[in-house]
Amino acid sequence: MADSERNRKILLGLVKQPGNDRCADCGAPGPDWASCKLGVFVCLQCSGTHRSLSTRVKSLLLDFFEDDVVESMKSKGNAKAKAVYEKAVPPFYYRPQENDNKVLKEQWIRAKYERQEFTGERKYPPPGYTTGFYEGMLWKKGKEKTLFLQRKFVLSEREFNLMYYNKEDESKGPKAVISIKNLNATFQPEKIGHPHGLQITYHDDDHTRNLYVYHESAEEIVTWYNAIRAVRFAYLKTAFPTGKDQDLALKITRNYLKEGYMEKTGPLQKEMFKKRWFILDSQSRALLYFKGPLDAEELGVVFIGTESIGYSVKEYVPKTARGNKWKCGVMVQTPGRQFIFMCEQESEQKEWLEALREVLSRPMAPQDYIGEARVRNRR
Fold first, then answer.
1. What is the crossing angle of helices 102-109 and 218-239, to 10°?
2. Does one domain contain both 246 and 262?
3. What totals of helices (H) and strands (E) does the chain contain, helices first?
4. Could you give phi then psi for residue 206, rounded to 5 degrees?
5. Using an 8 Å Cβ cutoff, are 14 and 77 in contact?
6. Domain Arf-GAP: where (predicted)?
7. Gap between the Cα atoms of 376 and 329, Å rounded
8. Is pLDDT at 269 greater than 80 in this prediction?
9. DSSP reduced 3-state for 248
10. How many structural domains does the chain have?
11. Residues 353, 358, 359, 365: what is their CA dihedral angle, to the nearest 10 degrees?
């Protein structure tokens, strides 16, 4: 009979070893679950997906481990599993982290262990995100209404664009042809109201526009996400031919640094305050504002530069501005104007100040000056 306490001590020693001390799938520190067949240590959330793969999952702290299971865990471990199941992950494929969207983590686990997409063996048919061309139907939110309708989307690496059609009759041409150059995709399940909700953001005539889409299939929406990343990566390889893959991968897509409501007044600071939805995009150094969280087009943008060229961010106490219901202020000073925003709670004010200062403290890159000029020329 297995010595329960002895086996538990062995496993608790194994999980402290380098490689095992973080979740095999999302990198969360201190994993306390074991996926027995695969021989990997995982966190609580990832353990749920492993359980759905019909593999035994046990708690290191609560469950009984047989001798043969302990020996199997000793002979395997996270590093050996990665060498097999992550042998050939494409440089553009998004590897989810601890705080990422649930559907991304679930599909990462299924792609690794269930579909074995990264073992280096040729797959037929190949995964859709590897072909340079992808098409299919997605549910898309209407521009003015909250109704979602099915629309055909076509993604092309050769043309570096994403198209969608409003009607089934493709002879009339696409409703929109979107350049991949400045496109971003990020999962927004809470905002869109669907666990597979994806926000696609792009530039059009010096304005930022959003598409909100989803698919009922988790695998399909994550395939779309990584197909977009693949085409973006191919574009970046042509735009920055000397760039290293690991550096370019950081520029493919990003989550926004901060989102939420603030109240905003006009340039004279005497206008009525209006509630607006703000998005801080740290990569483009842009603070965008919309009438609501699911608007298709921004109402305006504030560029966040550095202190050395006349930008600053600080707490603000309201004086004479009229109509503001919220009292926790944020002031953004630019070379051409002072912007006043009001937050409902002090905690939100603190979060906005920290996020804005994070962008403010980062040195300007050459392309940032182009972005600054584009914002300035819009006024």
1. 90
2. no
3. 10, 17
4. 65, 15
5. yes
6. 8-126
7. 24
8. no
9. helix
10. 3
11. 160
Q: Which of 228, 250, 272 is the last residue before a domain boundary? A: 250
Q: Are the C-beta atoms of residues 173 and 345 closer than 8 Å to each other?
A: no
pLDDT, position 124: 77
In a domain, 120, yes or no: no
The answer to whether residues 203 and 170 belong to one domain is yes
User: Is the model's pTM score more than 0.90?
Assistant: yes
Q: Which two tokens stand for residue 163?
A: 């198209």
Structural domain for 363, as ranges: 258-378
Any domain includes 124: no
Predicted confidence (pLDDT) at residue 130 exceeds the cutoff of 90: yes
The C-alpha atoms of residue 73 and residue 62 are separated, in whole angstroms, by 17
Confidence bin at 1 (pLDDT 50/70/90): very low
Residue 150: phi and psi, rounded to 5, are -75, 130
Residue range 165-177: mean pLDDT, rounded: 82
Contacts of 85 (CB under 8 A, 6+ apart): 112, 113, 116, 118, 119
**Residue 22, strand partner residues:** 29
CATH number (domain holding residue 27)? 1.10.220.150
Residue 313 is assigned to a structural domain of this protein: yes
**Cβ contacts of 352-355, under 8 Å, gap ≥ 24:** 352/258, 352/260, 352/262, 352/280, 353/313, 353/314, 353/315, 355/257, 355/258, 355/280, 355/282
108 in the same domain as 38: yes
Classify residue 326: in a domain, yes or no. yes
Kindly state the tokens that stand for 70. 């302990």
Q: Are residues 280 and 364 in the same domain?
A: yes
Are residue 282 and residue 364 in the same domain, yes or no?
yes
pLDDT number for residue 169: 67
In this structure, the answer to whether residues 231 and 276 fall within a common structural domain is no
Q: Cα torsion for 179, 182, 183, 189, to the nearest 10°?
A: -160
Q: Which of 250, 270, 298 is the last residue of a domain?
A: 250
Q: What is the CATH number of the domain that holds 166?
A: 2.30.29.30
- The string of pLDDT tens digits covering residues 12-54 is 998 899 999 999 999 999 999 999 999 999 999 999 999 999 8
**Mean pLDDT across 248-266:** 95
If asked whether residues 237 and 313 sit together in one domain, one would say: no
